[in-house]
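Pasting as-is:
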Amino acid sequence: MPVRRLVIDVLIPHNLSILHLAEKMAEIEGVDGANVHVLEVDERTKTVEVTIEGGSLSFDAIKEVTEELGGSVHSVDMVSAGSKLIEHEAAEQEV
């Protein structure tokens, strides 16, 4: 079954616009859409959560584009595969 949604944690250079990152992700073959959400910013880098959906995603292609832009994948936080996407709400963590 094809991978249809990936949520990845990515470290990118501070000077890389999340607009540019989203556009580049959306250009990858098999990608129908991409969301980029900034989680943390420091002097030189940003930590972003990238959500990508499509009919058949290639993690290798996504990782390659990320690295070409100067970023690095820290973790794969969610994967959805199969003929139907299942919506999932993250559980609230008590502090």
